Amino acid sequence: MQGTPPHPGARRADSRRWKALIVIALAQLMVVLDTTVVNISLPSAQHDLGISDGNRQWVITAYSLAFGGLLLLGGRIADLAGRRRMFIIGLVGFAGASALGGAAVGTATLLAARALQGVFGALLAPAALSLLAVTFSEPKERAKAFGIYGAVSGGGGALGLILGGVLTQYLSWRWALYVNIPFAVAGIVGAVTVVREPDERPQRSRLDIPGVLLATSGLVLLVLGFSHAETHGWHARITVLLLVGAVLLLAVFVLVESRVATPLLPLRVVTDRNRGGVYLSLGLSVIGMFGLFLFLTYYLQVVKGYTPVVTGLAFLPMILGMVTGSTQIGSRLMNVLPPRVLMGTGFLVSALGILLLTQLKVESSYAAVVLPAQVLLGLGMGTAFMPATSLATHRVQPRDAGVASAMVSTSQQVGGSIGTALLNTVASSSGHRWAARHLQQAGSLGKVGYANHAAVHGYTVASWCAVSILGIAALAAFTLIQAPRQDTGPSAATDTEKTTAPALHG
Protein backbone atom coordinates (compact mmCIF):
# COMPACT_ATOMS: atom_id res chain seq x y z
CA MET A 1 0.00 0.00 0.00
CA GLN A 2 1.25 3.50 -0.82
CA GLY A 3 2.80 5.37 2.04
CA THR A 4 3.35 2.22 4.07
CA PRO A 5 6.98 1.36 4.82
CA PRO A 6 8.02 -2.12 3.78
CA HIS A 7 7.93 -4.84 6.37
CA PRO A 8 11.45 -5.43 7.78
CA GLY A 9 11.43 -9.04 6.61
CA ALA A 10 10.03 -8.38 3.18
CA ARG A 11 12.04 -9.41 0.16
CA ARG A 12 12.89 -7.15 -2.72
CA ALA A 13 10.73 -7.96 -5.74
CA ASP A 14 12.50 -9.92 -8.47
CA SER A 15 12.57 -7.88 -11.68
CA ARG A 16 12.04 -11.06 -13.70
CA ARG A 17 9.03 -12.24 -11.72
CA TRP A 18 6.50 -11.77 -14.55
CA LYS A 19 8.66 -13.77 -16.94
CA ALA A 20 8.95 -16.39 -14.20
CA LEU A 21 5.14 -16.45 -13.97
CA ILE A 22 4.94 -17.36 -17.67
CA VAL A 23 7.35 -20.25 -17.12
CA ILE A 24 5.51 -21.51 -14.02
CA ALA A 25 2.12 -21.23 -15.74
CA LEU A 26 3.49 -23.08 -18.79
CA ALA A 27 4.65 -25.97 -16.61
CA GLN A 28 1.32 -26.10 -14.79
CA LEU A 29 -0.52 -26.09 -18.11
CA MET A 30 1.51 -29.11 -19.23
CA VAL A 31 0.61 -31.08 -16.11
CA VAL A 32 -3.09 -30.17 -16.28
CA LEU A 33 -3.30 -30.85 -20.03
CA ASP A 34 -1.97 -34.33 -19.49
CA THR A 35 -4.94 -35.27 -17.32
CA THR A 36 -7.37 -34.97 -20.25
CA VAL A 37 -5.39 -34.93 -23.51
CA VAL A 38 -4.64 -38.66 -23.18
CA ASN A 39 -8.30 -39.49 -22.49
CA ILE A 40 -9.35 -38.36 -25.97
CA SER A 41 -6.54 -40.32 -27.66
CA LEU A 42 -7.06 -43.50 -25.62
CA PRO A 43 -9.36 -45.33 -28.08
CA SER A 44 -6.79 -44.86 -30.88
CA ALA A 45 -3.91 -45.96 -28.65
CA GLN A 46 -5.85 -49.02 -27.54
CA HIS A 47 -6.47 -50.07 -31.13
CA ASP A 48 -2.90 -49.39 -32.27
CA LEU A 49 -1.16 -51.19 -29.40
CA GLY A 50 -3.74 -53.93 -28.94
CA ILE A 51 -4.47 -52.92 -25.33
CA SER A 52 -7.16 -55.13 -23.80
CA ASP A 53 -10.36 -53.63 -22.41
CA GLY A 54 -9.23 -54.75 -18.95
CA ASN A 55 -5.94 -52.84 -19.22
CA ARG A 56 -7.35 -49.77 -20.97
CA GLN A 57 -8.26 -48.02 -17.74
CA TRP A 58 -4.70 -48.44 -16.44
CA VAL A 59 -3.43 -45.92 -18.99
CA ILE A 60 -5.32 -43.32 -16.94
CA THR A 61 -4.99 -44.98 -13.53
CA ALA A 62 -1.20 -45.48 -13.72
CA TYR A 63 -0.76 -41.72 -13.97
CA SER A 64 -3.29 -40.81 -11.30
CA LEU A 65 -1.91 -43.37 -8.82
CA ALA A 66 1.67 -42.15 -9.08
CA PHE A 67 0.69 -38.49 -9.18
CA GLY A 68 -1.82 -38.58 -6.33
CA GLY A 69 0.22 -40.93 -4.17
CA LEU A 70 3.47 -38.96 -4.33
CA LEU A 71 2.29 -35.35 -4.18
CA LEU A 72 2.95 -34.88 -0.47
CA LEU A 73 6.42 -36.38 -0.83
CA GLY A 74 7.09 -34.15 -3.83
CA GLY A 75 6.05 -31.08 -1.88
CA ARG A 76 8.26 -31.93 1.08
CA ILE A 77 11.25 -32.69 -1.17
CA ALA A 78 10.79 -29.26 -2.75
CA ASP A 79 10.92 -27.70 0.73
CA LEU A 80 14.08 -29.59 1.67
CA ALA A 81 16.04 -29.72 -1.60
CA GLY A 82 14.94 -26.49 -3.26
CA ARG A 83 11.82 -25.59 -5.24
CA ARG A 84 13.60 -24.42 -8.38
CA ARG A 85 15.76 -27.52 -8.48
CA MET A 86 12.75 -29.83 -8.16
CA PHE A 87 10.90 -27.74 -10.73
CA ILE A 88 13.64 -28.35 -13.30
CA ILE A 89 14.02 -32.04 -12.41
CA GLY A 90 10.26 -32.47 -12.72
CA LEU A 91 10.25 -30.87 -16.18
CA VAL A 92 13.15 -32.99 -17.43
CA GLY A 93 11.61 -36.20 -16.09
CA PHE A 94 8.14 -35.38 -17.44
CA ALA A 95 9.56 -34.74 -20.91
CA GLY A 96 11.50 -38.02 -20.86
CA ALA A 97 8.47 -39.99 -19.71
CA SER A 98 6.32 -38.38 -22.41
CA ALA A 99 8.87 -39.30 -25.09
CA LEU A 100 8.92 -42.88 -23.82
CA GLY A 101 5.12 -43.08 -23.91
CA GLY A 102 4.87 -41.58 -27.38
CA ALA A 103 7.34 -44.14 -28.72
CA ALA A 104 5.69 -47.10 -26.94
CA VAL A 105 5.26 -50.27 -29.00
CA GLY A 106 3.44 -52.25 -26.32
CA THR A 107 1.11 -51.93 -23.36
CA ALA A 108 3.79 -52.34 -20.68
CA THR A 109 5.92 -49.48 -22.04
CA LEU A 110 2.96 -47.12 -22.25
CA LEU A 111 1.82 -47.93 -18.72
CA ALA A 112 5.36 -47.48 -17.37
CA ALA A 113 5.65 -44.13 -19.13
CA ARG A 114 2.33 -42.95 -17.70
CA ALA A 115 3.43 -43.93 -14.19
CA LEU A 116 6.70 -42.04 -14.66
CA GLN A 117 4.75 -39.00 -15.83
CA GLY A 118 2.84 -39.19 -12.55
CA VAL A 119 6.06 -39.45 -10.50
CA PHE A 120 7.65 -36.38 -12.09
CA GLY A 121 4.34 -34.52 -12.11
CA ALA A 122 4.22 -35.01 -8.33
CA LEU A 123 7.60 -33.25 -8.10
CA LEU A 124 6.67 -30.53 -10.56
CA ALA A 125 3.18 -29.42 -9.46
CA PRO A 126 3.91 -28.46 -5.81
CA ALA A 127 7.26 -26.91 -6.78
CA ALA A 128 5.49 -24.71 -9.35
CA LEU A 129 2.82 -23.44 -6.95
CA SER A 130 5.24 -22.84 -4.09
CA LEU A 131 7.59 -20.93 -6.44
CA LEU A 132 4.67 -18.74 -7.40
CA ALA A 133 3.82 -18.16 -3.75
CA VAL A 134 7.34 -17.04 -2.81
CA THR A 135 7.82 -14.95 -5.97
CA PHE A 136 4.74 -12.74 -5.53
CA SER A 137 4.20 -11.23 -2.08
CA GLU A 138 2.73 -7.79 -2.89
CA PRO A 139 -1.08 -8.15 -2.64
CA LYS A 140 -2.13 -6.65 -5.98
CA GLU A 141 0.61 -8.44 -7.90
CA ARG A 142 -0.19 -11.66 -6.06
CA ALA A 143 -3.82 -11.34 -7.11
CA LYS A 144 -2.87 -10.96 -10.79
CA ALA A 145 -0.35 -13.80 -10.66
CA PHE A 146 -2.73 -16.22 -8.97
CA GLY A 147 -5.50 -15.14 -11.34
CA ILE A 148 -3.40 -16.25 -14.30
CA TYR A 149 -2.32 -19.44 -12.53
CA GLY A 150 -5.93 -20.21 -11.58
CA ALA A 151 -7.08 -19.71 -15.18
CA VAL A 152 -4.42 -22.11 -16.42
CA SER A 153 -5.23 -24.71 -13.75
CA GLY A 154 -8.96 -24.50 -14.31
CA GLY A 155 -9.03 -24.23 -18.10
CA GLY A 156 -6.12 -26.53 -18.89
CA GLY A 157 -8.18 -29.69 -18.52
CA ALA A 158 -10.80 -28.49 -21.00
CA LEU A 159 -8.07 -27.25 -23.35
CA GLY A 160 -6.62 -30.76 -23.23
CA LEU A 161 -9.87 -32.09 -24.70
CA ILE A 162 -9.49 -29.75 -27.68
CA LEU A 163 -5.81 -30.47 -28.17
CA GLY A 164 -6.30 -34.21 -27.75
CA GLY A 165 -9.04 -34.22 -30.38
CA VAL A 166 -6.99 -32.24 -32.90
CA LEU A 167 -3.80 -34.27 -32.41
CA THR A 168 -5.59 -37.62 -32.52
CA GLN A 169 -7.70 -36.79 -35.55
CA TYR A 170 -5.04 -35.11 -37.69
CA LEU A 171 -1.73 -36.60 -36.49
CA SER A 172 -1.63 -39.60 -34.14
CA TRP A 173 -2.45 -40.56 -30.59
CA ARG A 174 1.31 -40.52 -29.97
CA TRP A 175 1.34 -36.74 -30.27
CA ALA A 176 -0.94 -36.52 -27.24
CA LEU A 177 2.23 -37.51 -25.37
CA TYR A 178 4.87 -35.91 -27.57
CA VAL A 179 3.14 -32.53 -27.20
CA ASN A 180 4.51 -32.30 -23.65
CA ILE A 181 8.11 -32.17 -24.86
CA PRO A 182 8.11 -28.63 -26.33
CA PHE A 183 6.24 -27.41 -23.24
CA ALA A 184 8.89 -28.97 -21.01
CA VAL A 185 11.84 -27.70 -23.05
CA ALA A 186 10.49 -24.14 -22.96
CA GLY A 187 9.92 -24.53 -19.22
CA ILE A 188 13.45 -25.79 -18.59
CA VAL A 189 15.03 -22.91 -20.54
CA GLY A 190 12.84 -20.43 -18.70
CA ALA A 191 13.53 -21.99 -15.29
CA VAL A 192 17.29 -21.75 -15.84
CA THR A 193 17.20 -18.16 -17.08
CA VAL A 194 14.41 -16.32 -15.24
CA VAL A 195 13.04 -18.37 -12.33
CA ARG A 196 14.61 -17.58 -8.99
CA GLU A 197 13.71 -18.41 -5.43
CA PRO A 198 14.70 -16.63 -2.22
CA ASP A 199 18.13 -17.33 -0.82
CA GLU A 200 16.59 -18.29 2.52
CA ARG A 201 16.52 -22.02 3.14
CA PRO A 202 14.85 -23.98 5.92
CA GLN A 203 17.13 -25.81 8.25
CA ARG A 204 18.09 -29.23 6.97
CA SER A 205 16.08 -32.00 8.54
CA ARG A 206 15.52 -35.70 8.07
CA LEU A 207 12.86 -36.93 5.72
CA ASP A 208 9.98 -38.52 7.59
CA ILE A 209 10.27 -42.05 6.15
CA PRO A 210 7.35 -43.57 8.14
CA GLY A 211 5.20 -40.64 7.05
CA VAL A 212 6.28 -41.09 3.42
CA LEU A 213 5.38 -44.79 3.44
CA LEU A 214 2.04 -44.28 5.19
CA ALA A 215 0.93 -41.27 3.14
CA THR A 216 1.99 -42.74 -0.19
CA SER A 217 0.41 -46.13 0.52
CA GLY A 218 -2.78 -44.57 1.86
CA LEU A 219 -3.23 -42.19 -1.07
CA VAL A 220 -2.44 -44.90 -3.63
CA LEU A 221 -5.01 -47.23 -2.06
CA LEU A 222 -7.54 -44.39 -1.96
CA VAL A 223 -7.16 -43.51 -5.65
CA LEU A 224 -7.05 -47.21 -6.59
CA GLY A 225 -10.16 -47.89 -4.54
CA PHE A 226 -12.15 -45.22 -6.35
CA SER A 227 -10.85 -46.50 -9.68
CA HIS A 228 -12.06 -50.00 -8.83
CA ALA A 229 -15.40 -48.59 -7.68
CA GLU A 230 -15.85 -47.11 -11.15
CA THR A 231 -15.16 -50.41 -12.93
CA HIS A 232 -16.31 -53.06 -10.40
CA GLY A 233 -18.88 -51.22 -8.28
CA TRP A 234 -18.90 -49.90 -4.71
CA HIS A 235 -19.95 -53.22 -3.16
CA ALA A 236 -17.16 -55.25 -4.78
CA ARG A 237 -14.94 -56.86 -2.15
CA ILE A 238 -11.74 -55.43 -3.64
CA THR A 239 -13.24 -51.91 -3.62
CA VAL A 240 -14.22 -52.14 0.04
CA LEU A 241 -10.85 -53.59 1.08
CA LEU A 242 -8.92 -50.88 -0.77
CA LEU A 243 -10.96 -48.02 0.68
CA VAL A 244 -10.90 -49.41 4.23
CA GLY A 245 -7.15 -49.97 3.94
CA ALA A 246 -6.70 -46.39 2.73
CA VAL A 247 -8.66 -44.94 5.64
CA LEU A 248 -6.69 -47.00 8.18
CA LEU A 249 -3.30 -46.06 6.69
CA LEU A 250 -4.17 -42.37 6.52
CA ALA A 251 -5.47 -42.44 10.11
CA VAL A 252 -2.18 -43.95 11.29
CA PHE A 253 -0.37 -41.33 9.17
CA VAL A 254 -2.11 -38.51 11.04
CA LEU A 255 -1.19 -40.14 14.38
CA VAL A 256 2.46 -40.48 13.35
CA GLU A 257 2.63 -36.90 12.05
CA SER A 258 1.44 -35.60 15.41
CA ARG A 259 4.36 -37.29 17.16
CA VAL A 260 7.46 -37.09 14.93
CA ALA A 261 9.91 -34.20 15.12
CA THR A 262 10.09 -33.50 11.38
CA PRO A 263 6.76 -34.63 9.87
CA LEU A 264 6.15 -35.07 6.16
CA LEU A 265 2.92 -33.09 6.57
CA PRO A 266 3.06 -30.78 9.59
CA LEU A 267 -0.46 -30.84 10.98
CA ARG A 268 -0.34 -27.05 11.43
CA VAL A 269 -0.72 -26.81 7.63
CA VAL A 270 -4.09 -28.59 7.50
CA THR A 271 -5.46 -27.72 10.93
CA ASP A 272 -5.33 -24.03 10.10
CA ARG A 273 -9.02 -23.24 9.67
CA ASN A 274 -8.63 -21.29 6.45
CA ARG A 275 -6.31 -23.70 4.66
CA GLY A 276 -8.38 -26.67 5.83
CA GLY A 277 -11.48 -24.99 4.43
CA VAL A 278 -9.72 -24.40 1.12
CA TYR A 279 -8.59 -28.03 0.79
CA LEU A 280 -12.04 -29.39 1.66
CA SER A 281 -14.07 -27.06 -0.56
CA LEU A 282 -11.67 -27.43 -3.50
CA GLY A 283 -11.80 -31.21 -3.30
CA LEU A 284 -15.60 -31.17 -3.22
CA SER A 285 -15.86 -28.73 -6.12
CA VAL A 286 -13.62 -30.83 -8.36
CA ILE A 287 -16.03 -33.76 -7.92
CA GLY A 288 -18.75 -31.72 -9.60
CA MET A 289 -16.48 -30.33 -12.31
CA PHE A 290 -15.21 -33.78 -13.28
CA GLY A 291 -18.81 -34.86 -13.61
CA LEU A 292 -19.35 -32.28 -16.34
CA PHE A 293 -16.18 -33.27 -18.21
CA LEU A 294 -17.14 -36.92 -18.08
CA PHE A 295 -20.78 -36.65 -19.08
CA LEU A 296 -20.50 -33.92 -21.68
CA THR A 297 -17.70 -35.72 -23.51
CA TYR A 298 -19.87 -38.83 -23.85
CA TYR A 299 -23.02 -36.83 -24.58
CA LEU A 300 -21.44 -34.80 -27.39
CA GLN A 301 -19.60 -37.69 -29.02
CA VAL A 302 -21.96 -40.63 -28.50
CA VAL A 303 -25.41 -39.02 -28.37
CA LYS A 304 -24.85 -36.02 -30.64
CA GLY A 305 -22.27 -37.69 -32.88
CA TYR A 306 -19.65 -34.92 -32.68
CA THR A 307 -16.12 -35.71 -33.89
CA PRO A 308 -13.27 -35.53 -31.32
CA VAL A 309 -12.20 -32.13 -32.69
CA VAL A 310 -15.70 -30.65 -32.59
CA THR A 311 -16.19 -32.09 -29.10
CA GLY A 312 -13.03 -30.39 -27.93
CA LEU A 313 -14.03 -27.09 -29.51
CA ALA A 314 -17.43 -27.37 -27.82
CA PHE A 315 -15.63 -26.94 -24.47
CA LEU A 316 -14.16 -23.55 -25.47
CA PRO A 317 -16.90 -21.53 -23.69
CA MET A 318 -15.94 -23.17 -20.40
CA ILE A 319 -12.27 -22.31 -20.94
CA LEU A 320 -13.13 -18.70 -21.73
CA GLY A 321 -15.39 -18.59 -18.68
CA MET A 322 -12.61 -19.87 -16.43
CA VAL A 323 -10.10 -17.37 -17.81
CA THR A 324 -12.60 -14.53 -17.35
CA GLY A 325 -13.61 -15.64 -13.86
CA SER A 326 -10.03 -16.01 -12.71
CA THR A 327 -8.33 -12.99 -14.30
CA GLN A 328 -11.19 -10.48 -14.51
CA ILE A 329 -13.37 -11.31 -11.51
CA GLY A 330 -11.32 -13.23 -8.94
CA SER A 331 -8.10 -11.24 -9.30
CA ARG A 332 -9.89 -7.88 -9.31
CA LEU A 333 -12.03 -8.66 -6.27
CA MET A 334 -9.54 -10.62 -4.17
CA ASN A 335 -8.24 -7.45 -2.54
CA VAL A 336 -11.79 -6.13 -2.04
CA LEU A 337 -13.82 -9.12 -0.80
CA PRO A 338 -12.95 -11.90 1.69
CA PRO A 339 -11.95 -15.22 0.05
CA ARG A 340 -15.01 -17.03 1.43
CA VAL A 341 -17.32 -14.69 -0.48
CA LEU A 342 -15.54 -15.24 -3.80
CA MET A 343 -15.16 -18.98 -3.29
CA GLY A 344 -18.65 -19.65 -1.96
CA THR A 345 -20.33 -17.53 -4.62
CA GLY A 346 -18.18 -19.08 -7.34
CA PHE A 347 -19.18 -22.60 -6.30
CA LEU A 348 -22.86 -21.60 -6.27
CA VAL A 349 -22.60 -20.15 -9.79
CA SER A 350 -20.94 -23.40 -10.90
CA ALA A 351 -23.75 -25.38 -9.26
CA LEU A 352 -26.25 -23.29 -11.23
CA GLY A 353 -24.42 -24.25 -14.43
CA ILE A 354 -24.62 -27.96 -13.65
CA LEU A 355 -28.26 -27.47 -12.59
CA LEU A 356 -28.99 -26.62 -16.23
CA LEU A 357 -27.60 -30.04 -17.21
CA THR A 358 -30.25 -31.75 -15.12
CA GLN A 359 -32.65 -30.66 -17.89
CA LEU A 360 -30.58 -32.29 -20.64
CA LYS A 361 -32.46 -34.36 -23.22
CA VAL A 362 -31.35 -36.42 -26.19
CA GLU A 363 -32.80 -33.77 -28.49
CA SER A 364 -31.45 -30.76 -26.50
CA SER A 365 -29.54 -28.20 -28.55
CA TYR A 366 -25.99 -27.22 -27.68
CA ALA A 367 -26.82 -23.50 -27.64
CA ALA A 368 -29.86 -23.82 -25.39
CA VAL A 369 -28.47 -26.06 -22.61
CA VAL A 370 -24.81 -27.03 -22.93
CA LEU A 371 -23.44 -23.58 -23.81
CA PRO A 372 -24.93 -21.63 -20.87
CA ALA A 373 -24.07 -24.49 -18.51
CA GLN A 374 -20.42 -24.34 -19.55
CA VAL A 375 -20.24 -20.55 -19.28
CA LEU A 376 -21.66 -20.57 -15.74
CA LEU A 377 -19.42 -23.44 -14.62
CA GLY A 378 -16.35 -21.73 -16.08
CA LEU A 379 -17.09 -18.34 -14.54
CA GLY A 380 -17.84 -19.89 -11.14
CA MET A 381 -14.82 -22.18 -11.00
CA GLY A 382 -12.45 -19.51 -12.28
CA THR A 383 -13.66 -17.04 -9.67
CA ALA A 384 -13.37 -19.61 -6.86
CA PHE A 385 -10.07 -21.28 -7.81
CA MET A 386 -8.12 -18.05 -7.92
CA PRO A 387 -8.50 -16.96 -4.25
CA ALA A 388 -8.41 -20.63 -3.16
CA THR A 389 -4.93 -21.31 -4.55
CA SER A 390 -3.67 -18.03 -3.16
CA LEU A 391 -5.14 -18.56 0.32
CA ALA A 392 -3.76 -22.11 0.49
CA THR A 393 -0.22 -20.68 0.55
CA HIS A 394 -0.99 -17.31 2.17
CA ARG A 395 1.16 -16.65 5.24
CA VAL A 396 2.31 -20.26 5.40
CA GLN A 397 5.67 -20.76 7.06
CA PRO A 398 8.49 -20.82 4.48
CA ARG A 399 9.58 -24.33 5.41
CA ASP A 400 6.06 -25.59 4.68
CA ALA A 401 5.43 -23.86 1.33
CA GLY A 402 6.00 -26.95 -0.79
CA VAL A 403 3.83 -29.31 1.23
CA ALA A 404 1.05 -26.69 1.54
CA SER A 405 1.11 -26.37 -2.24
CA ALA A 406 1.09 -30.16 -2.59
CA MET A 407 -2.09 -30.33 -0.50
CA VAL A 408 -3.88 -28.16 -3.10
CA SER A 409 -3.05 -30.68 -5.83
CA THR A 410 -3.80 -33.61 -3.52
CA SER A 411 -7.28 -32.33 -2.70
CA GLN A 412 -7.98 -31.83 -6.41
CA GLN A 413 -6.56 -35.23 -7.37
CA VAL A 414 -8.54 -37.09 -4.70
CA GLY A 415 -11.64 -35.06 -5.58
CA GLY A 416 -11.22 -35.97 -9.24
CA SER A 417 -10.88 -39.66 -8.42
CA ILE A 418 -13.98 -39.59 -6.22
CA GLY A 419 -15.94 -37.60 -8.79
CA THR A 420 -15.10 -39.92 -11.68
CA ALA A 421 -16.01 -43.04 -9.69
CA LEU A 422 -19.03 -41.72 -7.81
CA LEU A 423 -20.77 -39.86 -10.61
CA ASN A 424 -20.02 -42.51 -13.21
CA THR A 425 -21.53 -45.14 -10.89
CA VAL A 426 -24.63 -42.99 -10.29
CA ALA A 427 -25.07 -42.33 -14.00
CA SER A 428 -24.61 -45.96 -14.97
CA SER A 429 -26.98 -47.40 -12.36
CA SER A 430 -29.64 -44.73 -13.05
CA GLY A 431 -29.40 -45.37 -16.78
CA HIS A 432 -29.86 -49.10 -16.29
CA ARG A 433 -32.87 -48.54 -14.05
CA TRP A 434 -34.45 -46.24 -16.64
CA ALA A 435 -33.86 -48.83 -19.36
CA ALA A 436 -35.50 -51.54 -17.24
CA ARG A 437 -38.57 -49.36 -16.58
CA HIS A 438 -39.00 -48.33 -20.23
CA LEU A 439 -38.52 -51.61 -22.06
CA GLN A 440 -41.72 -51.01 -23.99
CA GLN A 441 -40.09 -48.00 -25.69
CA ALA A 442 -37.19 -50.00 -27.09
CA GLY A 443 -39.08 -50.81 -30.28
CA SER A 444 -40.27 -47.27 -31.02
CA LEU A 445 -36.96 -45.60 -30.18
CA GLY A 446 -34.72 -48.13 -31.86
CA LYS A 447 -31.68 -49.75 -30.26
CA VAL A 448 -29.45 -46.66 -30.50
CA GLY A 449 -32.16 -44.20 -29.48
CA TYR A 450 -33.19 -46.37 -26.53
CA ALA A 451 -29.57 -46.56 -25.32
CA ASN A 452 -29.11 -42.81 -25.74
CA HIS A 453 -32.24 -41.98 -23.73
CA ALA A 454 -31.10 -44.28 -20.93
CA ALA A 455 -27.61 -42.73 -20.91
CA VAL A 456 -28.88 -39.15 -20.87
CA HIS A 457 -31.25 -39.97 -17.99
CA GLY A 458 -28.23 -41.27 -16.07
CA TYR A 459 -26.31 -38.07 -16.80
CA THR A 460 -29.12 -35.91 -15.45
CA VAL A 461 -29.40 -37.89 -12.21
CA ALA A 462 -25.64 -37.69 -11.70
CA SER A 463 -25.79 -33.96 -12.41
CA TRP A 464 -28.24 -33.56 -9.50
CA CYS A 465 -25.61 -35.23 -7.29
CA ALA A 466 -22.93 -32.86 -8.60
CA VAL A 467 -25.16 -29.86 -7.85
CA SER A 468 -25.60 -31.06 -4.26
CA ILE A 469 -21.86 -31.58 -3.80
CA LEU A 470 -21.07 -28.10 -5.13
CA GLY A 471 -23.64 -26.73 -2.71
CA ILE A 472 -21.78 -28.44 0.13
CA ALA A 473 -18.50 -26.99 -1.20
CA ALA A 474 -20.04 -23.51 -1.09
CA LEU A 475 -21.28 -24.11 2.47
CA ALA A 476 -17.79 -25.27 3.54
CA ALA A 477 -16.24 -22.15 2.03
CA PHE A 478 -18.73 -19.78 3.65
CA THR A 479 -18.51 -21.36 7.12
CA LEU A 480 -14.93 -22.60 7.51
CA ILE A 481 -12.92 -19.85 5.81
CA GLN A 482 -12.68 -16.74 7.96
CA ALA A 483 -9.65 -14.99 6.42
CA PRO A 484 -10.11 -11.29 5.61
CA ARG A 485 -9.35 -9.89 2.18
CA GLN A 486 -5.73 -10.59 1.35
CA ASP A 487 -4.38 -7.06 1.30
CA THR A 488 -4.98 -6.42 5.00
CA GLY A 489 -2.37 -6.63 7.70
CA PRO A 490 1.30 -7.53 7.34
CA SER A 491 1.65 -9.80 4.34
CA ALA A 492 5.11 -11.00 5.06
CA ALA A 493 4.78 -13.43 7.90
CA THR A 494 2.48 -15.45 10.03
CA ASP A 495 2.22 -14.75 13.71
CA THR A 496 4.63 -17.59 14.40
CA GLU A 497 7.14 -16.30 11.85
CA LYS A 498 7.31 -12.61 12.75
CA THR A 499 10.23 -12.96 15.07
CA THR A 500 11.80 -16.14 13.79
CA ALA A 501 11.90 -16.28 10.00
CA PRO A 502 12.28 -14.00 6.99
CA ALA A 503 9.01 -13.42 5.18
CA LEU A 504 8.40 -15.19 1.92
CA HIS A 505 4.66 -14.99 1.36
CA GLY A 506 2.03 -12.38 0.72
Automatic annotation (TrEMBL):
Which controlled-vocabulary keywords does the entry list? Antibiotic resistance, Cell membrane, Membrane, Transmembrane, Transmembrane helix, Transport
| Keyword Transmembrane helix in record | yes
The keyword Nucleus appears for this protein: no
**Which Pfam families does this entry report, sorted A to Z?**
MFS_1 (PF07690)
Q: How does it sit in the membrane?
A: Multi-pass membrane protein
Q: Which InterPro entries match?
A: EmrB-like, MFS, MFS_dom, MFS_trans_sf, Sugar_transporter_CS
Where is it located? Cell membrane
Under what name is this protein listed? Puromycin resistance protein pur8
- The organism named in the record is Streptomyces incarnatus
